[in-house]
Amino acid sequence: xxxxxxxxxxxxxxxxxxxxxxxxxxxxxxxxxxxxxxxxxxxxxxxxxxxxxxxxxxxxxxxxxxxxxxxxxxxxxxxxxxxxxxxxxxxxxxxxxxxxxxxxxxxxxxxxxxxxxxxxxxxxxxxxxxxxxxxxxxxxxxxxxxxxxxxxxxxxxxxxxxxxxxxxxxxxxxxxxxxxxxxxxxxxxxxxxxxxxxxxxxxxxxxxxxxxxxxxxxxxxxxxxxxxxxxxxxxxxxxxxxxxxxxxxxxxxxxxxxxxxxxxxxxxxxxxxxxxxxxxxxxxxxxxxxxxxxxxxxxxxxxxxxxxxxxxxxxxxxxxxxxxxxxxxxxxxxxxxxx
Amino acid sequence: xxxxxxxxxxxxxxxxxxxxxxxxxxxxxxxxxxxxxxxxxxxxxxxxxxxxxxxxxxxxxxxxxxxxxxxxxxxxxxxxxxxxxxxxxxxxxxxxxxxxxxxxxxxxxxxxxxxxxxxxxxxxxxxxxxxxxxxxxxxxxxxxxxxxxxxxxxxxxxxxxxxxxxxxxxxxxxxxxxxxxxxxxxxxxxxxxxxxxxxxxxxxxxxxxxxxxxxxxxxxxxxxxxxxxxxxxxxxxxxxxxxxxxxxxxxxxxxxxxxxxxxxxxxxxxxxxxxxxxxxxxxxxxxxxxxxxxxxxxxxxxxxxxxxxxxxxxxxxxxxxxxxxxxxxxxxxxxxxxx
DNA sequence: ATGAAAGCGCTAACAC
DNA sequence: GTGTTAGCGCTTTCAT
Lengths: 339, 339
Hints:
Chain A is of the alpha/beta class and 339 residues long. In chain A, 42% of the residues lie in helices and 16% in strands. The longest helix of chain A is centred in the last third of the chain and has 20 residues, at 294-313. The mean pLDDT of chain A is 91. The structure holds a DNA duplex (16 and 16 nucleotides).
């Protein structure tokens, strides 16, 4: 392995000068710089990142922990985060938590290992009871739900308002019996509970009765469970003319399940999702959805984290208390709601 | 920051003993171990991975460089790789190459930085001309196309055979004028060229004429371009009753484009894709596809890499020459081809 | 503009 | 079963 010393010897300078060149420090004579660069090239030198990390205490990398990378939503989120991080000169390493509390705690511990300068944790499993576990001494930003008023910065979706708008949209389009396919509600600030609240609010506002038979809870927010829920609804005998799906992934399954049940969208039933994943625009019928401003949320999360990382550099300065950011959204009306 | 020294002092042992405990070495008295563990807990000690990496020269992490994480195929591939790597005690860090030659070269350089013990590179941009650039002194496995007979292990899809089977399937289902939506062909061993070859072979085998007007090349393998290609085909006046799409992502776009053109699938036109992404089963109509054995390919790629990493540990032993593995596939017939 | 000294936190190799 | 020594490759600090 070629070290900075080897390069220094070959270029006839000290290791420090080589270091200066590598790190683009200004005070190096042009001629010297070129001599060093030539030596680097000839010897095939590469910095040893581990050594640099040890010395500087920084890695230039942030961790992004998401439930599962193979769900479209998280893949697209990851892409946004990577783009935002690049703007701060940060790289992103992706972790999977398996949508479990244990996985999320493991991701927190990893970060503590100083592998990353900070962590963006997309929570699904952690709840209010875990607030204390977030009191770690390294930068963390929570992206998602289930922890409010925690000790760390938090970027959340406009869950209640978005769900209300989605449901109201169905009602506007003429639906009178709107079903809901959502995940397990823990009665806390999890995604399903919040979107459920929005759904209820919209019904109330329109003076429509709430019918528990029209709520189809599923265990995991997957296409498979969405399809099964739709078939269950269709087979239950309960009449419905609209479905609000807690996520687009679930909605894709619901569209399939409705087709399996011989129901036509949007003629018999109108459907709307949440997340506005890229696939939605290409489905037949194309999927109406709530579009949280993903880029803004990703940018805010990375921004918060970058600030916290910078804070740690300065001694003493504690920086602002835990911040909360709730994104904005827009409604995208497509064929599945008759657009 | 709490170091191993602090723990040693608190537990009344030497740093080495703490190290032994952390690394689960067997020769530590039970009582000592517990004393150390208690100290670790009380002080909140966490290993400094950078220091360990520097010392051992290993990181326990492999890199996975894919074109874009937000395409379903790569998200699902990443999930398979992560699962396979976990079986070898390896973690995975995901890089994006942006589907460009430069991005792929950058990923190679990063790995060289010793951030990772090895790299799985999903190539799209690198070509035969870049063979020499792969002659790096750290473990690399190529997953994908465009480099055969390179200096490194290579795991490839059954591109030609799969494409032939897909096209033959359309013909079996009664199609006589099969269109092809593929990417840019560079006349080399890129995905589009190989699958094009398979398409041609199937036409020849069935005694069907090749009509260049039925080939719709697109610049990027996205849903957007797929939809545009389908509309172009439909508007061209050229008759066709089947479409083989070079990937499922493209096929999703094609299904949309056909719907936009007033064509019904599978009645007017039958459609088949390649990759068998999870979404395909839930589309309406569900998408027929070629299913490469993703898990086997991921497992093989990780296995190759793990062996190469182990080799580097032993001095001298060179290990086998570059290996080549071409996966198997099966055809999944769904509604889009009339199943 | 360049360099010397020191040490980041850990573990391999070897004692005992 | 436990401890000593040494040093991985780099950069911070301070000098010149």
